[in-house]
Design brief:
This protein is α+β, with helices and mostly antiparallel strands. It is built from eight helices and eleven strands.
Length: 287
């Protein structure tokens, strides 16, 4: 099978925890994705950037919407039909993966340092900003190498001593700013520390792929299932029937081999409603 990413890109991801995939999406594809994200968020929330944190609750604020419905066919196809992300995630992680539901996002606030996944599960986040992003307008900032557990522990110790924890001026962090243009896709390890600063109403599309544990790893299967079935949209307030997560995507899997493979793994995990888990007697050809 032909590699999707260069040897240098794969090794950069593994060494530093991220890689910028310049121009992964064509101009036409970026336009289609932008249209789906914009229309979806407007349909679900009545506009863009509606979550302005009026009660100062903090957190990574914004409008979030699962984007796997039939009315967003390009986003739906990016989950597994198109090899760039599903197959590409396996190249970056060095193992088979299983997809999460992609999201349309309009970020409305900055975010502090955080990771996308806590448990020790391999995985990659793909993030496509749909407008130009610079250091002044909300480009992603990363702590290169912080996906490595040993380095992460040293960073935690450093941050624990930071005077900013007591309300004083903080110590600098060796962050790397990742400016992008529409069509670029950021791929970063789910354990990489990252943040954003500057910019408002930042329109984006994002998704994750987690390492497939295999049927012999019951604990790993449980952890990945819990991560994939966590309800990120519990308080979002949009019409869950109109914007389903897996139902319409799963119904269209017939005849698309890669989508069927992804669906089989989700079913074995018990991450798709009504599916039988491996523990209940499920089986699969690539378990």
């Amino acid at each position: 099978m032909t590699s999707l990413f260069s040897h240098q890109q794969i090794e950069h991801f593994r060494a530093f925890g991220y890689v910028v995939l310049h121009g992964l999406l064509t101009h036409e594809e970026t336009g289609r994705l932008t249209a789906e994200v914009t229309a979806g968020l407007t349909d679900a929330y009545g506009g863009l950037g509606t979550d302005t944190d009026p009660y100062d609750e903090g957190g990574i604020r914004g409008d979030y919407l699962p984007l796997a419905a039939d009315r967003t066919p390009f986003s739906q196809s990016l989950i597994a039909d198109d090899p760039r992300l599903f197959q590409g995630s396996a190249e970056l992680c060095g193992r088979m993966t299983v997809p999460a539901v992609p999201s349309a996002v309009c970020f409305t606030t900055n975010s502090g340092w955080h990771t996308d996944v806590g448990p020790d599960v391999p995985g990659v986040t793909f993030l496509a900003h749909l407008e130009p992003r610079t250091a002044q307008t909300g480009a992603l900032r990363v702590l290169s190498g912080s996906h490595d557990p040993a380095y992460a522990r040293r960073l935690a110790a450093y941050r624990g001593l930071d005077p900013a924890n007591q309300g004083f001026s903080g110590w600098p962090m060796p962050e790397t700013v990742l400016p992008t243009r529409p069509g670029d896709v950021l791929a970063f390890d789910v354990h990489l520390l990252h943040r954003s600063a500057g910019g408002a109403n930042r329109l984006a599309w994002r998704t994750e792929y987690l390492g497939w544990p295999g049927l012999g790893d019951a604990d790993g299967m449980r952890v990945v299932r819990e991560l994939l079935t966590e309800d990120e949209y519990e308080d979002a307030g949009f019409d869950r029937v109109r914007w389903p997560e897996w139902d319409e995507w799963a119904a269209g899997a017939a005849g698309i081999a890669s989508r069927q493979t992804a669906l089989d793994r989700l079913r074995l995990l018990g991450a798709v409603p009504g599916a039988r888990t491996a523990a209940e007697g499920g089986a699969g050809p690539d378990a």
